[in-house]
Amino acid sequence: MLLHAEGIRKSYNGVPALVDGRLALEAGSIHALCGGNGAGKSTFLKIVMGLVKRDGGTLSVKGEAVNFSTPAQALAAGISIITQELSPIPAMTVAENLWLGRERMRGPFVDRKRAERDAQALFDRLGFDIDARLPMRALSVARMQLVEIAKAISYESPIVIMDEPTSAIGETETETLFRAIRALAARGTGIVYVSHRLNEIFQIADRFTVFRDGRFVETGRIADIDRGELIRHIVGREVLRHRPEQADSPVQGPALLQVSGLRQEPMVRGIDLEARAGEIVGIYGLVGAGRSEFLNAIYGLTKPDAGEVRLDGRALPPGRPREAIGAGMSLVTEDRKETGLVTVRSVKENTSLAALRDLCKAGFISRRKENALVSAMMRRFQVKAASPDLAVASLSGGNQQKVVLSRCFSTSPRVLLCDEPTRGVDEGAKMEIYATLRAFVADNNAAVVVSSDLEEILHISDRIIVFNRGLAVAEMPAREANNENLLHHAS
Amino acid sequence: MKQFLLGCVAVMALGAAASAADAKTYRIGVAMYGLKGEFAQSWVNEAKKHPAIKDGTATLTVFDGNYDQLTQDRQFDEMIAQHYDAIIFDPIDSNAGGALVARAEKAGIPVIGSNGPVKAANEAAYIGSDDVKAGEDEAKAVIDKMGGKGNVVILQGPVGQLGSIQRYEGNQKALAAAPGIHLLEKNTANWSRAEALNLMQNWLTAHPGQINGVIGENDEMALGAIAAMRSQGIDPATVPTAGIDGVHDAMVAVSKGYMVLSIKQDAFTQAQGAVDLALRHIIGDSYKPLSTCWTMYPSMKWDNGEGKLYNVPWTYVTKANVQQFLNK
Amino acid sequence: MRTSSTMPPESVASALPPARRRPDLGQLAREYGIVVALIVIVVALSFMNPYFLTVRNISNIFLQISINGFLATGMTFVMLAGGIDLSVGSVLAAGGIVAAGLVSGDHAYAPWVGILAGLGTGALLGAVNGGLVAYLRVPAFVATLGMLSTARGITEVYSGGMPIPDLADGFVELGQGRLFGITIPVWIYLACIVVAVVITRNTRFGRYVYAVGGNARSAVTSGINTKLVIFTTFVLSGLLAGLAGMILTARTTSGLPQAGIGYELDAIAAVVIGGTSLSGGVGTMVGSLLGALIIGVINNGLDLMGISSFYQHIIKGVIIVGAVLFDANARREQR
């Protein structure tokens, strides 16, 4: 037994993230760790790699109890990790990146020749077609990911953990990677493979473990299970979260938003979409399916390679957010701190920012109009802040998100694009946000909601579109959708 | 925050103690163009050794203009606000300086110019050496040594600075009188030996074997040029070079024959003479000069302190007389 | 009688009267901190030197800070939007020398021609900075470092390295004249501050400057033309540097090619002492005015006491770092 974990527990600020984490990894095995959002996989991995301290449970490597407090300790004990986030130094060569901190030396000097030779030998063995002498920045994201994988392998650790290693790479690279993984396993390395993509799991893994809601659910051999059964383990109970106001039959209102042939390589590969007045369209897909990129291109944050966006019949100029706002579109971005809010400024300034144009006379802001708008919005969204002059940074996540929505609604949009509208928001605020969206479309408007939360998609949408690798692969009325068929199409 | 404010207060208290002035002592302010150069430092040192300062008859407060016109402007305002009894003035710019002198005169404060002249101004008196003449004489020395024929280069002081402008004016006078001399290059090396070294190296590369003489508007730059020649295997003795100021290294270079001339500026006389003149204008004709500087030069007499212009002669240091300065 | 307990639960914000402007606490603390520092310094200096609190000296201080004040005002716009302008000292010299060249000598143009040309020169050089930073994506530090050298060179070429004296009387009046007993540069500076305060607080452009500096990506999402905003802040900085250059020229009665060397540092210091964040988005014009005042008062006070300029440099440096440390602490407490 290479790695054995049992009863691993972890709470953040009293909120349990992991209640009972278990895993048994054997030498030469490729072990898939499965689970939906909030299943506790990430917390479990962080504990194993020494990033987070566990509250309880036992962890042992090769039969010896371990207790890591830094990633370096985990590495020394024989665990190396490939994370989703890349950390290359772009100006250095591939070889330099690979041996960073383990430089090949000759006396007091770095031996560049040997570093390149060793790196090239490693790539050849893994079957990666990469030139070790190139600067890192000359590589595609997929190749960078392969270098990162090679780096983890180069530690020759008996245990390798791969967290969504294929999220950024294409199909050909995936094939290459799988060959390398199999070769690695054949030499006795134990691999923990984490992926949302079920196809991959059935292709590469020999064992599986499922977590759900922070708990271990099931483990076994892949050969003994089929896809449907695995999905049922991941999803658990079939929660019927459909709500009465969801349309029984397709919404018949006029098409407010029409997107045709939108393309932005490599993430969006030709997508059509229509949203009708009175309708909430949900978009579901895995990480890397191109959902955010699709919304950003519609709104004009990025300029698409091809395709057309019409709002109420009028074509929008590509790449012009201001025109989109003027035509009646609003975007709730995925990451409110990065792209949504100016956190150092006040609630008031953030709320009125997009609407200032209408609050001004000759460039001067009308205090009266602005205050009226801001207090109306704060009341409508129940923003809990002691004063509208408080910096947004001092609010809770839920209230920050309400400020984002306030800003989006302040321009009186007809079409609202929401990218993960309730990420990091507590349950109560979530419900308020759902109610607001519902009330919004009831007013003959339309909304498009992107979410990786299955329950949210099922709950909020009238119609659901599933994205997979930059394409819309399935479309169904929300009443016909369930966890299983959505996950099936998405992975 | 508190601590650092306390710190400030402490520093200021020290300053206050130092400036707590006896009501009967005369207060003389000195507005210097800047205190970073060797000459300015020795000027200040000599002024502080003046007998009237040492015995407490008068205090001397030195303001560093930091080579910035606005700073000097501010310092004049401050001296006027504090009713200084007299101001000794070494300007950054001779045109802009005129406005400052007028401001002080209007407030009834006599201004004694020293070292650098002010244009179109009503200074009570001026004591200094003629930079135009020094520029002319050093150029002449180089030209004479060259036999009135060949190519010269000029190393200039900072762009727009008074001393630099005047010395260059003198250089041009001498060049105009020597038709056989061709001015090959001129550029600023900012009074700096290191900058002059680089500049001269580039010139030597651009004009191999063609530079026959070097006019340095100060000694430091002349010494930089000599270093450049030596680094390229050229014997400095074969390329006549001159400078102004009379710094120690230049004396050594003169004694070795690397420089034909260094013109020595007399900080002692310019500084102590200015203090005497300031006291004379404060106290009136009952004041008798205390400094020994008035016995230095036959051509410069005290004249009962009524003169407008006191021209401090330059001292010309050549191989013939260099030993007496080196022994000092 | 109904009691408040029968009122429906409402969010706190909606219960507040909406019109009343309540200043952000952290901002208040920071500005308050500067005011306290200024008062302490002023009180200390007035005890130490009898001349410090005289009318004449106070008016001197305002006159003295006006040049740095103009630069700091422009710098505040740039830094609020997340940039920096290292070229202000050189642009000041260029604006001053161009104006001086036009209003000096026998063929002098009317003073207003010189004034317009000086302002135009500043704005143009600022526009080059802005174009490089906003549209060609050159980092502000690099673009304006280049301009620091280029504008100085332009000044030297234009003047041949020589001061330009004999300026028209009407032009000199700009720096020397008085109105109701206060010198004209001080009036212009006060007017400039008022306009800058109104722009930052009451106009759409001002709001956009804060938003772009606070989070440029959010600003884009809100439909703001961030490039135009950044460009404009640099134009404003250049314009104000040109204005400062002309006033300096008029004040010193001649155009000086070496004017303004190192002035960018005092301007940045004033802005930073005034509480503007180096990363943009936070800060006020009044803060920068106070920052310029603190620097001016310290320069003046230390001069009055006859403290060597060598020590003055040390004290100034300590105060700048101290102010920023204080600022960082105030922010940490806020969290």
UniProtKB/TrEMBL annotation, chain A:
Keyword Cytoplasm in annotation: no
SMART domains with a match to the protein in the record: AAA
Keywords, in A-Z order: ATP-binding, Cell membrane, Membrane, Nucleotide-binding, Repeat, Sugar transport, Translocase, Transport
Gene3D superfamilies referenced in this protein's UniProt entry, alphabetically: P-loop containing nucleotide triphosphate hydrolases
Pfam families per UniProt: ABC_tran
Domain ABC transporter per the UniProt entry, residue ranges: 3-238, 251-490
Domain of life: Bacteria
Position of the signal peptide: none
Molecular function as annotated in GO: ATP binding
Name used for this protein in its record: Sugar ABC transporter ATP-binding protein
Automatic annotation (TrEMBL), chain B:
Gene3D superfamilies according to UniProt: 3.40.50.2300
Alphabetical list of SUPFAM superfamilies matching this protein: Periplasmic binding protein-like I (SSF53822)
Periplasmic binding protein domain: residues covered: 28-284
Signal peptide coordinates: 1-23
Keywords: Signal
Origin superkingdom: Bacteria
Similarity-based family: Belongs to the bacterial solute-binding protein 2 family.
Protein name per UniProt: Substrate-binding domain-containing protein
Organism, as annotated: Endosaccharibacter trunci
Automatic annotation (TrEMBL), chain C:
Transmembrane segments: 32-54, 61-80, 86-105, 112-132, 179-199, 228-248, 268-298
Keywords per UniProt: Cell membrane, Membrane, Transmembrane, Transmembrane helix
Top-rank taxon: Bacteria
Membrane topology recorded in Swiss-Prot or TrEMBL: Multi-pass membrane protein
InterPro entries, A to Z: ABC_transp_permease
Cell location: Cell membrane
A Pfam family of this chain: BPD_transp_2
Protein name (Swiss-Prot/TrEMBL): ABC transporter permease
